[in-house]
Each structure stands twice: as structure tokens, then as C-alpha cells.
Give the backbone structure.
Amino acid sequence: MGRKGILVVVSGFSGVGKGRLMKLLTEKYGQYALSVSATTRAPREGEEDGREYFFRTKEEFERLIAEDRLIEYACYCDHYYGTPRDYVEDQISQGRDVILEIEQQGALKIRKMFPQAMLLFVMPPDAQTLEERLRGRGTEEEEVIRARLRQAVEEAREVEKYDYMIVNDDLEESVEEMHRLIEGQHNRIDRNGEFIQQIRQELLELAGVLGEDRAMARQ
Ligand code: 5GP
């Protein structure tokens, strides 16, 4: 039976360690395809166009929107972020589990468009740790850090709209937990309709044949 790919949406407060989590997960398990988003924000040190993001100007981004080449997009801290459509559709149809690491507005749009998508929220062990991680990153101005913490307060209000949460205390453990959760999702009854129908049909045919054999034996 060909396994269908799952669309997995991962959100979490800025600084919670989603990026490293995704990197490790995709390195460790080959079944995952990580979608690279387009954004209008400037690259951080060490980021490369086409690897962390497709860095685009506002005009270029608005053209992507107009041409319907994004599955979803959102404005976050004064910048656009969006998910390219082609890659996601292509990978899902090839049976790979596609991970979108996106913020909440986008996640909730995906939920509406793809009700079978799985929504995960990554939590810090506590708020203090989140602040320390944001500062420890050392790539952002104080003002940006404060804005991201305020954003976290807003995002915390909507966590119940997600299906699962992962507390990212130990990175390796979080990776395993995420993998287990996604694997479990493949076994849901509502994701396996075709397979179940096929088994029913085979059973019916087999039962029919057995019935005929017995009837023959009785003659
Ligand atoms: P950062 O600037 O820290 O890389 O990302 C800021 C936020 O934008 C993060 O919460 C990240 O998950 C989110 N984000 C990244 N790509 C996308 C996208 O394609 N769509 C949406 N809606 N959010 C995104």
C-alpha cells in the first residue's frame, strides 16, 4: 500500500528552537520534506537564500501572492512570510511527510484548507528559558526581542487550536517525540480509508470463494 504524505504544521514562539528541531528531525529521518518559505525579512547572519528562506523584496512577494503561488502567507512582525505551493503539493503526492514551520495565522489557514493536516506546537519548558534563548541567539536588537516576546503572549492565546504540543527541553528527545507523533498519525483510521476498503473487498471475495468451495465439497 502506498503511504500518503502528511502535511505537518509546526508552530512555536520565536526562539523556542523550532529551527534546530526541524533540522535534526529531517537529518535523522529521510521521510520528511521541509518546506522552504519565502519572506521579505532580511537574512540573518549565516542564512542563505533558498536554504533557510527564499529572501524576496516586497514587490516580488506580492507578485507570488497575485500569481497564487503560495498556499498561505501571513504578515509577522512587519514582514511577509509564505509557503510556496508547488513544492508542498509535489512532495505530498510522492508520499513524503511535508513539514511547514510557520506561525499561527498561517497554521490556522492550513487547518481550514487541509482538515487532515496535523498541527504541532513547540513549547519552551518555561517563559524564562524562552527569553534566554532569544537573547542567546545574539542576532537581534533589544527592540526586536521585546516585539517577539509580545508576539509570544498573543500566540499563547491560541495554542488550543493545535492538535499536539511538544515541550522542547532536550532537543534529541523532542525530535523523537515529534517523529513518534507523526508516525502515529499515519495509523489513524480516517487516513486509511482506501486501504480499509481494499481489505473489505478482498475479504468479501475470499469469503465468497470459500463459500463456493464448501458448496462444491458438499455435492
Ligand atoms: P523568523 O523570522 O524567526 O525566521 O520567523 C518568524 C516567524 O515566521 C516564525 O514563527 C516562523 O515559523 C514564521 N514563518 C516562517 N515561514 C512562514 C510561512 O511560510 N508562513 C507563515 N505563515 N509563517 C512563516
About this structure: Residues 7-187 form a domain with the Rossmann fold fold (CATH 3.40.50.300). Strands lie at 7-12, 32-34, 37-39, 53-55, 70-76, 79-84, 97-101, 118-123, 164-167. The chain has a mean pLDDT of 93.
